[in-house]
Specification:
Blueprint lengths: L3 H16 L3 H13 L1 H32 L1 H23 L17 H13 L2 H10 L11 H36 L1 H24 L6
């Protein structure tokens, strides 16, 4: 199974990714502010369903493929680093908006809330990059079943993301009001997140492929 030290490193990487703004965070914040906590939680359930699709896709073959094919792994690693840098630029570029500035969204039914949460996450490039470029670094055939390791790591990532996003959905209105009265912190938040994303990009580019 996954060594404990590697698991702790994975927890740190997954937590940083969960805390960085992306489509999921923006949608859940806006939905919770526009339609209330219950709508945010229902949307989050759809997001979790999307995570399960990403996890089982990786666990049932993608991870093993990229571990076995060095060129595919390297291409995805550099593509992932480039995308993280792109996200960092989107956070700090002039005129960028913080995810804590809510978007206006129409009222939706519970079924549509779930479906939209699911599709937002399923088509979320940040999560795809995580599972295709960062995730395989923590899986090694030398540590036993690739499938077993993938499931353990995937469930860890889902639990962390669920916890972070649940807190965001439940406190979205208060966060939005606080940031509205402390607008300087909106800029601080953007630059901090941009720095974290850039650091993750550098870390990913510097990582060596694990084969044993």
């Amino acid at each position: 199974m996954v060594p404990f030290n590697d698991w702790l490193l994975f927890v740190g990487a997954a937590l940083l990714m969960a805390l960085t703004p992306g489509p999921n965070m923006v949608y859940l914040l806006s939905r919770s502010i526009c339609q209330g906590r219950q709508a945010g939680v229902i949307s989050l359930m759809g997001v979790v369903a999307g995570f399960l699709v990403h996890m089982f896709t990786a666990a049932l073959g993608l991870t093993a493929l990229f571990m076995a094919v060095p060129m595919a792994y390297e291409i995805l690693k550099w593509a992932g680093a480039a995308y993280l840098l792109y996200l960092a630029w989107q956070a700090v570029k002039p005129g960028a908006r913080s995810p804590f500035e809510a978007r206006d969204l129409p009222q939706d039914s519970p079924r549509k809330l779930f479906v939209m949460g699911f599709l937002t996450n399923l088509l979320n490039p940040k999560i795809a990059v995580f599972y295709l470029a960062i995730f395989p670094q923590f899986v090694s055939p030398a540590h036993g079943s690739v499938l077993g390791q993938s499931v353990v790591l995937g469930l860890t990532q889902i639990a962390l993301s669920f916890s972070v996003n649940l807190c965001i959905a439940l406190s979205a209105a208060r966060l939005a009001v606080w940031f509205q009265h402390h607008r300087r912190w909106l800029a601080v938040q953007r630059y901090v997140m941009g720095g974290v994303l850039a650091a993750l990009a550098v870390r990913l580019a510097a990582e060596q492929r694990r084969v044993a």
